[in-house]
Design brief:
By secondary structure, the protein is of the alpha/beta class. The chain has seven helices and seven strands, in the order αβαβαββαβααβαβ. Helices cover about 35% and strands about 20% of the residues. The structure holds S-adenosylmethionine.
């Protein structure tokens, strides 16, 4: 279930980024997205706050570089990357605008950023309460637990991206099915996924926000 969920999200992210370039993946986890990005060529650097995640990712991604640290303060030179991705990690940041300012500094002119994060809507506004209830009455498999994650509306994400100076900002809904659902419900949710993404934004679990740093790539219009 986790694999299907991740594949679906990472496919959407790949469509928003230039293939075969230099990528920085923020909150890279076990390197699943980096490995997929690398299948079309290109270089990837992964950054994560967790040493354990990075060790795991090194085992999965031969030849890529990794760095331990927070996505809010990035130890790289200005204009170093063609693309920046952040998959399901943005919601854990305490200072999301710092991360976006850093991303803007690190991208080359015309470089692209894509962030997939938890969206705040009718469905997800109930999730923290469901987690708390699950913990309270100690029922297993009711959600995965409350990690203090933040949920963002589309408007909030667009404002954050604009304030960081990104242009051509686009927002898409991604995924309704969530791995913490019980299997039969997950399968039904998965089948409904395309319909929900296109027609029922208030039920989509994640949003994918993409943008471009101003400027021209190699003197050409991106
Ligand atoms: C849900 S996992 C997603 C991992 C990966 N992007 C993926 O899609 O498989 C969230 C990741 O964000 C990382 N993380 C949380 N806070 C972070 C921060 N401030 N800076 C960098 N990484 C962070 C966690 O360690 C974890 O690996």
């Amino acid at each position: 279930m986790g694999r299907a969920y991740h594949q679906h999200i990472s496919s959407a992210l790949l469509q928003s980024l230039p293939p075969g370039c230099s990528l920085l993946d923020l909150g890279c986890g076990t390197g699943l997205f980096m490995r997929r990005y690398g299948e079309n060529g290109g270089d990837a650097v992964g950054l994560d706050i967790s040493r354990g995640m990075i060790e795991n990712a090194r085992g999965r991604c031969n030849g890529f570089e990794f760095c331990m640290g927070t996505a809010e303060e990035l130890p790289f030179r200005d204009n170093s990357f063609d693309a920046i991705s952040c998959l399901l990690a943005f919601s854990y940041l305490r200072h999301p605008s710092r991360m976006l300012a850093e991303a803007s500094r690190l991208l080359k002119p015309g470089g692209r950023i894509a962030v997939c994060t938890l969206s705040r809507n009718m469905l997800t506004s109930l999730v923290p309460a469901i987690y708390r209830l699950g913990e309270l009455i100690d029922i297993r498999h009711v959600g995965v637990g409350d990690f203090g994650e933040q949920y963002y509306t589309e408007d909030e994400m667009v404002i954050l991206f604009s304030e960081a100076g990104f242009l051509d900002i686009s927002v898409k809904r991604v995924s309704f099915a969530h791995i913490s659902l019980k299997k039969p419900i997950f399968e039904i949710a998965r089948k409904m996924e395309p319909f929900v993404e296109q027609r029922m934004p208030s039920l989509a679990y994640n949003i994918l926000v993409a943008g471009r740093k101003p400027g021209l790539i190699g003197g050409r219009t991106p």
